[in-house]
TrEMBL record:
The record marks 32, 244 as: Transition state stabilizer. It catalyses: N-acetyl-L-glutamate + ATP = N-acetyl-L-glutamyl 5-phosphate + ADP. This is Acetylglutamate kinase. Pathway: Amino-acid biosynthesis; L-arginine biosynthesis; N(2)-acetyl-L-ornithine from L-glutamate: step 2/4. Its main location: cytoplasm. It is an enzyme of class 2 (transferase). The gene is argB. It comes from Succiniclasticum ruminis DSM 9236. Substrate binds at residues 67-68, 89, 181. The lineage of its organism: Bacteria, Bacillati, Bacillota, Negativicutes, Acidaminococcales. One of its GO terms (biological process) is L-arginine biosynthetic process via ornithine. The keyword ATP-binding applies. It is found in: Cytoplasm.
C-alpha cells in the first residue's frame, strides 16, 4: 500500500519515530512468529520488512518461529493424520522427522532468505545448534514433544554481537541426541527469558487479550501479571489464550520487561507497537 504524503509529512513521521528508535536501539527484542500470520505471503513480507527496519536502526532482533500449519500440510501430503492433545502435537518417530524437515529445514531457510532479500543479515539455527535448547520428554503419551530443561543463550548472544538476526526453529534435543518438537510459544518464551529480553512479542490471530473474546473492541491494552491471574480466575482468559498468557508470565518471571500479545494479521503491527505511541495488542508487564 502506498500513501500520498508530502515529503514534509514523511519527514515528520520519521522524526516522530526518533524517541522510540532511541528507546529500543541496542535492546534485545524476541519475536515469536507462527500460525496463520505466516501463511499469508503479503503479511509475511511485511513482518520481514518490519524486522529488517528495526535491525537497521540497531534493535537486536531474535526471530523465533513455529510453522504448525506447514507441518500439518506436509503430514497430509504424506498421508499422516495430525493429532493434538491440549494443543500439543502428538509426535511419533515419523512425525519428529517431519517436524525437523519443516521447521529446521524449509521454514527456517525461507525466513532467513526473506530477511536477506530485504537487506538484513540473518542466520538460521535450530534449538539443537550450540546446545541452545535442551529438553526432556514432556509426557510419554505425546511422544517426542519436548519440555525445555535448559537454554544456552550464548550462541544467540554471539550472533547478535556479530550483527546477525538469529532465526531460531523450535526443535530441541536431549543429551542422547534425540530431537524433540517444542511448542513455538513455549520455546520463544524460554529463549526470551534466558536472554532477559527488553521486549517479547507473541504474534497471534486475535488482537490481544480481549475482555469478551468474541468482540475485538474489548481489547485490554495493558495488564500486569497480577491482573492476568485475576482474569484467569474470572474465566475471561480461557482456551488457547491460557497457555499464551502462561508463556508471558514465565518470560516476565525470568526477567523480560514487557511482553506484547499482538495480532499478526495486522500489517506492520510490530512497527506500530515499537515505533509509534499507538501501540498494538496487549502489553503484559510485571507491575
Ligand atoms: N480473553 C481472551 N482474549 C482473546 N482470545 C481468547 C481469550 N480467551 C480465549 N481466547 C481464545 O484464544 C485463542 C488464541 O489462542 P490460539 O488460537 O491457540 O492462538 P495461536 O493459534 O496464535 O497459537 C483465540 O482464538 C480465542 O478463541
Ligand atoms: C509440540 C507442538 O505442538 N509443536 C508445534 C511446533 C510448531 C508451532 O508451535 O507452530 P505455530 O507457532 O505455528 O503454532 C507443532 O508441532 O505444531
Amino acid at each position: 500500500m502506498s500513501y500520498s504524503y508530502s515529503n514534509a509529512e514523511r519527514a515528520q513521521i520519521l522524526v516522530e519515530a526518533l524517541p522510540y528508535i532511541k528507546k529500543h536501539s541496542g535492546k534485545i527484542v524476541v519475536i515469536k512468529y507462527g500460525g496463520n500470520a505466516m501463511i499469508n505471503e503479503t503479511l509475511k513480507q511485511q513482518v520481514m520488512e518490519d524486522i529488517v527496519l528495526l535491525w537497521h536502526v540497531g534493535v537486536k532482533i531474535v526471530l523465533v518461529h513455529g510453522g504448525g500449519p506447514e507441518i500439518n500440510d506436509l503430514m497430509k501430503r504424506l498421508g499422516k493424520k495430525a493429532e493434538f492433545v491440549d494443543g500439543l502435537r502428538v509426535t511419533d518417530k515419523e512425525t519428529i522427522d517431519i517436524v525437523q524437515m519443516v521447521l529446521a529445514g524449509k521454514v527456517n531457510n525461507t525466513l532467513v532468505n526473506l530477511l536477506q532479500m530485504q537487506g538484513g543479515n540473518a542466520l538460521g539455527l535450530s534449538g539443537a545448534d550450540g546446545h541452545l535448547i535442551k529438553c526432556k520428554i514432556k509426557d510419554p503419551r505425546l511422544g517426542f514433544v519436548g519440555e525445555v530443561t535448559e537454554v544456552n543463550e550464548k550462541p544467540v548472544l554471539d550472533l547478535l554481537e556479530k550483527g546477525y538476526i538469529p532465526v531460531v526453529s523450535t526443535v530441541g534435543c536431549d543429551d542422547q541426541g534425540n530431537a524433540y518438537n517444542i511448542n513455538g510459544d513455549t520455546a520463544a518464551a524460554c529463549i526470551a527469558g534466558a536472554l532477559k529480553a527488553e521486549t517479547f512479542i507473541l504474534m497471534t490471530d486475535v488482537p490481544g487479550i480481549l475482555r469478551d473474546k468474541d468482540d475485538d473492541k474489548t481489547l485490554i491494552p495493558a495488564v500486569t501479571v497480577a491482573e492476568t491471574k485475576r482474569l484467569k480466575e474470572e474465566g475471561v482468559i480461557a482456551g488457547g489464550m491460557l497457555p499464551k498468557v502462561k508463556c508471558c508470565e514465565d518470560a516476565i518471571e525470568k526477567g523480560v520487561k514487557n511482553v506484547i500479545i499482538m495480532d499478526g494479521r495486522v500489517p506492520h503491527s510490530i512497527l506500530m507497537e515499537l515505533l509509534t505511541d499507538e501501540g498494538a495488542g496487549t502489553m503484559v508487564t510485571g507491575e
